Amino acid sequence: MLLNDDKNLKMLIDKQKLYKEALDNKISNVEAKQFVDALFENYFLDNDNINFLVSNGVNFFNLDNNEQCFCLSNIDFKDCCFKSLKKTKNSQYNTFLKAIINKEDYNNFLNYSNDLFLKHYRALGKEEVCHYNDCEKNAIENNLYKFDFTADKFFTTYRKNSFDNKFTFGENFFRVANPETFNYYGFCSEHYKILKSIVVKEDSSEDELTLVNFSSLLFKLFISRVHLNALKEEFCSIYNSLDGAIKPLYIYNLRKVSNKVSSLINFYSKYKKWMKKEENNFVIKRFILPKTNNFLIQDLVYPQVTPDDFKMVNSINNVFVEEKSALLGIFKNDKSTYVTFIYDKKDEKITSYFNQYWEIIENKEKNIEFFVTNCSLILCDNLLISSDYFNKFNEEEKTFYSALNKFRFENPSMGQEYLKMKFFAGFIKGNNFFK
Ligand SMILES: [Zn+2]
Ligand SMILES: [Zn+2]
């Protein structure tokens, strides 16, 4: 509905711009404005930073009546979800924030959120239209990965229910991937067939690579929209029941998911223009590496900081900064592993991130292997590790890889953040899943 109508999409993007401008105008003091701008380039906002931003009208913890509704309906909050808020209080409400305190509550939360997520998954799937060029047929259920999950066993930290993301340090978060873990609605049966017939190899055309990677974007976008729709229902039914201490954190989380979806929509609309050859705005970087059966991935990569001049690409906790991402695909045949990175060459942050890495890597095979492994493990969600390879890890390695993969979803303290960055620094050493 939202995505298949270009006019609507454009309106949405314009409206976001307007809101940002209005925010800029609210801050009349020049120095404060400069400081706010500088904070928006921070990788990590500490409490003082956030307090300063909040006092200058950047509403991390509550919703403004006149802002565009978090559900991305293109309508002001006061005329949208605010109107659907249930007035009566219910003490039996169940949210992530309430449930993380004790284990029994968390199990109840998982049951409830699984149902809520699947309900919205099906509802959105029903109305989803094929995203292939201008096709308008109904989308069918697709799978992001091409192989048969019952024949090949893989481990993943990815969970179908997006609410199921409570990670505790020291825990092994990997589970066997079910066949339906990576399902989504993206293409009609005809275009899904075309997608599935593509075998990525050395001489694959740009169009083929573009389409295969497009499916990773559609997967993430679809699942994130389901998550937002589910949150919207939860918000309307329980927000007035939340106790005061939880409310601000609840809104913060709502903004995080909303920002993720609107950032993906921007990425989607640019990518679509590239696919239709209306704009020459993306670049494909390919690598051919030795064959590996150890792991696979098709996903979006969310870079953190540029390796050379340490500029922020994505902020870890500023929910008002557009999320920047690129596409990563790892494909294999009997001879080789093919790796593709696809990114917006007109985006300054993303291009400087990759350009700085290409320089550090110097096209050396070992360096590429480390970089690809670290991107898959640390900056992505959909990593699949073959069970043969995974079972060779000891318990410490399993918990360590879980931490590297899940840690960025938490809100770590400054000290933890520093440790993590030390671990990740370089990115061309440390973990190599090709070996
Ligand atoms: Zn709304
Ligand atoms: Zn189609």
Topology:
Layout: H1 6-26, H2 30-39, H3 47-55, H4 81-84, H5 96-99, H6 103-127, E1 141-143, E2 154-156, E3 175-176, E4 183-185, H7 189-197, H8 206-238, H9 247-275, E5 282-290, E6 295-301, E7 326-332, E8 336-344, H10 348-361, H11 365-378, E9 384-386, H12 387-390, H13 395-406, H14 414-424
Antiparallel strand pairs: 1-4, 2-3, 2-9, 5-8, 6-7, 6-9, 7-8
Helix pairs in contact: 6-8, 8-9
Outline the structure in words.
With 435 residues, the chain is α+β, with helices and mostly antiparallel strands. It has a domain at 282-424. It has 14 helices and nine strands. The chain has a seven-stranded antiparallel β-sheet with strand order 3-2-9-6-7-8-5, with helices on both faces. Helix 8 (206-238) packs antiparallel against helix 9. Mean pLDDT is 89; it is low at 1-6. The structure holds zinc ion (ZN) (2 copies). One zinc ion binds at residues 69, 71, 73, 80-81.
